[in-house]
Write a structure and sequence with these properties.
One of its GO terms (molecular function) is triacylglycerol lipase activity. This is PNPLA domain-containing protein. Keywords: Coiled coil, Hydrolase, Lipid degradation, Lipid metabolism, Membrane, Transmembrane, Transmembrane helix. It holds the Pfam family DUF3336. The chain has 762 residues and is an alpha/beta fold. Among the domains are: 112 residues; 286 residues, Cytosolic phospholipase A2 catalytic domain (3-Layer(aba) Sandwich), CATH 3.40.1090; 76 residues, no CATH class. The protein has 30 helices and 13 strands. The strands form four sheets. Strands 1, 2, 3, 4, 7, 8 and 11 form a seven-stranded mixed β-sheet that branches. Strands 5-6 form a two-stranded antiparallel ribbon. Helix 8 packs antiparallel against helix 9 and helix 10 runs parallel beside helix 26. The radius of gyration is 35 Å and the shape is globular.
């Protein structure tokens, strides 16, 4: 490869810096989702105070006698305040330097790319890669990308450290599949238990999905995935193993694998790029494999559309250029001025009168226009997509940070999407806090009160709710679409890192150095926040803005124009031309990740097919009552969607765990709802019969006592001739079984006229 002067020195310097950066970055390598949390700083300041007092006692023991205690205390406090001030200034300077370093690295990368383009001729695959950025649809992109990948790189295993282990795993699975049915199932289950997991042996690492191979990865990786999927299908199709045993195995595997979630970041009006990301998923055939989506701030707009609209409705009504200007195609939106962001002049007038740019009531009207009164639960029942929208409380309740709320069909099933989107977009300074609304059983929309607080933009504390989504829905892979203009300088698209570098090793050093600088910013911001010295924005601490993570396992970031990079487009309502640009740029940014995302969801899709096979087998064996949970790999029983069979109880006060019995049904199935309704009806009837039984027992005792004290009638009297003897009838079976209707009555033994129910009191 041709080189330019000084390239060797540059490579050596980058290698040295990369090693040091890797050591720093390793501090946070153990946990991708957690923020850096240093030790509490209060103990350090306490130790500093004790050290100062001890030093004074050693150097000038008579100082406590000559100087008043109050003056000594004031002087000591002043010294400590000066030390703390110097410490704060140092940390702020280091944060500024780290941010400057990130920007300089970005500029250096662009300069290096320009120099390499001018210095020597680009390889053929790089020229074709640049041509991919002009593709208008997936078919054109796929056709052009198929000409780039080099077969030599696909077949080469010398650069794969785990190649031997992958080959051995493939051979073990193939041998287990060829064994006898019963023994083969046990052997295959044992082999799969160590293979079916996320990123096993690094097969999902970014280095196996480079820019030079847009649609293909190492042939060994595909062979391994094919063998694992074939083994899983063999286990599901084995007829000699009970369906319950196979169901338990696949339930464990589904929990291990987890699901992939699409996370849409905030960014104001620029979040319309997310519409292009969703359009790219649909065109590439990945829409059906994404079951969990989250949105925060402006990203909640497209996330709500993804969660409540079907694929056909998205293509027809949402992912079109006129969605922001004429959603219903009848001119209503333009005539009534229903836009998320009013014109700039009107924003200035609103700011002069209300100190915010957007009126919250007008914004709520726009949200009602788009989503109406549909709730999270109704949206999930309609599309089977889990929608998560993040908000946070306006004020802090008690000690600690503000309360956060991740809304979805599990935590807030009756909250309306329109109020959730409006609250998530309420960034302080842009819009005032919003109130949530919920729909009751009668369909009336009422305020949703949680501790009487209003809600604001959730991206201040968590632009991407990694932890909560992993806990609720067993999300193990995060595809983050990042369009925040203030994050863009420090977050790179994970598919475009290596395409700027002629030397692949420089790309790795660049990643290490940027990762170390990012970690430095997060670490120092967290330290300052523990001292309460971080600035506030409209009463909200900006610590989380610096300390939270903005990238995931796959990070999609479109190419910004100058106006988008500096934030000019953030508060401008998109026009038809803008929407065309956003949709085109969004899908072009996602297509380079299709190869990697396809391999990520490969196991999820296979497990979904196997689960569907088990559902069909169980339905044949036990009827509709034996249906298992839905075949999508969604919450993996992490939210208790499966129930026990009748009569099963583990006796613990905790929430009951998932069990597979012959009478297990899913809550979404009609058979479950019918059984639940019948069970509740029988419970109500049982309680009523128990109450009637107790009442009739009391009446029986009263009648028995009355008969014991009543004198016998004289023979020959009219009463004795007209009134036959009274017989007390008690159904003996009902006294021992409260579930059967008790019959207690006083029945006259008259053959002429039968007694009425009112007379016998039954």
């Amino acid at each position: 490869m041709p080189s330019f002067p000084g390239q060797r020195l540059l490579n050596q310097t980058a290698h040295f810096i990369g090693e040091r950066a890797q050591q720093l970055q390793h501090l946070n390598r153990h946990d991708l989702m957690n923020e850096y949390t240093p030790a509490p700083l209060n103990k350090y300041w306490n130790a500093a105070t004790v050290s100062c007092v001890t030093l004074i006692l050693l150097l000038a023991p008579g100082l406590f006698v000559r100087v008043p205690l109050a003056a000594l205390w004031v002087g000591l406090s002043f010294v400590l305040a000066c030390i703390q001030g110097v410490y704060v200034v140092y940390q702020l300077v280091m944060i500024a330097l780290s941010l400057s370093l990130l920007i300089l690295l970005r500029v250096a990368k662009n300069a290096y790319t320009l120099i390499t383009k001018l210095w020597y001729r680009q390889p053929p695959w790089r020229r074709r890669l640049e041509a991919l950025q002009t593709a208008d649809n997936w078919s054109e992109y796929e056709r052009n990308a198929s000409e780039i990948t080099e077969d030599d790189w696909v077949d080469d295993e010398s650069d794969m450290p785990a190649a031997a282990l992958l080959r051995r795993a493939i051979d073990d699975l193939a041998a287990a599949r060829d064994a006898s049915s019963r023994d083969g199932f046990r052997t295959l289950r044992f082999a799969l238990s160590g293979c079916v997991k996320r990123n096993h042996l690094g097969i999902e690492d970014r280095q196996w999905y480079p820019a030079r191979s847009p649609l293909r990865t190492k042939r060994l990786v595909d062979a391994y995935l094919d063998e694992v999927c074939s083994s899983l299908e063999k286990v599901a199709a084995t007829q000699s193993v009970p369906v319950d045993e196979k169901a338990r195995f696949f339930d464990q595997v589904r929990r291990t694998v987890g699901v992939t979630a699409l996370c849409l970041s905030g960014g104001g009006a620029v979040t319309m790029y997310h519409g292009g990301h969703i359009l790219g998923l649909i065109e590439a055939g990945l829409y059906e494999h994404i079951h969990v989506v989250s949105g925060t701030s402006g990203g909640a707009i497209m996330a709500a559309m993804f969660g409540c609209k079907t694929r056909k409705e998205l293509l027809r009504d949402i992912l079109v250029p006129h969605v922001s200007t004429d959603y219903k195609r009848d001119g209503t939106q333009k005539s009534e001025g229903l836009h998320f962001f009013p014109p700039l002049f009107r924003q200035l007038v609103t700011f002069a009168s209300k100190r915010v740019l957007v009126d919250r009531d007008q914004f709520k009207r726009v949200c009602d226009f788009y989503w109406g009164t549909i709730t999270f639960e109704e949206a999930y029942n309609r599309t089977k997509k889990v929608l998560c929208i993040s908000v946070q409380a306006q004020r802090v309740l008690g000690a600690g940070s503000a309360q956060r709320l991740l809304m979805n069909h599990v935590t807030t099933p009756h909250v309306t999407l329109s109020s959730a989107v409006a609250a998530s977009c309420a960034l302080p300074g842009i819009m005032r806090p919003q109130r949530l609304e919920a729909k009751d059983d009668q369909g009336n929309v009422r305020p949703f009160e949680v501790d009487g607080v209003s809600w604001i933009d959730g991206s201040i504390q968590a632009d991407v709710p990694f932890k909560r989504m992993a806990t609720l829905f067993n999300v193990s892979n995060f595809v983050v679409a990042q369009v925040n203009f203030h994050v863009k300088p420090i977050v790179d698209d994970s598919a475009r890192v290596e395409e700027h570098w002629a030397v692949p090793s420089l790309a790795r050093h660049y990643e290490r150095w940027t990762g170390a600088a990012e970690l430095s910013v997060r670490m120092r911001a967290t330290m300052l926040s523990q001292l309460g010295l971080m600035p506030t924005l409209y009463g909200n601490s900006v610590r989380k803005v610096f300390s939270q993570k903005y990238h995931g396992d796959v990070t999609v970031s479109p190419r910004f124009t100058f106006g988008e990079s500096v934030g000019f487009k953030v508060i401008c309502n998109p026009s038809v031309a803008d929407m065309k640009h956003y949709l085109r740029g969004g899908k072009r940014a996602l297509w380079p990740h299709v190869c990697r995302i396809t391999r990520m969801v490969r196991l999820e899709s296979c497990l979904a097919d196997c689960w569907a096979t088990l559902r069909a087998e169980r339905r044949r064996s036990f009827g509709d009552l034996g249906a298992l949970a839905p075949e999508n790999n969604l919450p993996n029983s992490a939210i208790g969607r499966d129930v026990h069979g009748v009569g099963h109880d583990d006796g613990s006060p905790e929430r009951r765990k998932v069990a597979f019995s012959t009478t297990e049904v899913h809550r979404d199935s009609p058979s479950y709802r019918q059984l639940e309704w019948e069970y509740r009806r029988l419970q109500t009837r049982l309680e009523r019969l128990r109450s009637e039984n107790l009442d009739l027992r009391g009446r029986l005792k009263s009648v028995a006592a009355l008969c014991a004290v009543q004198p016998p009638a004289r023979p020959g009297t009219p009463a004795s001739r007209s009134s036959p003897p009274t017989q007390i009838i008690v159904d003996a079976a009902t006294t021992s079984s409260p579930s059967r209707a008790s019959r207690v009555c006083t029945k006259p033994q008259s053959p002429e006229r039968p007694a009425s129910p009112r007379e016998i009191g039954c």
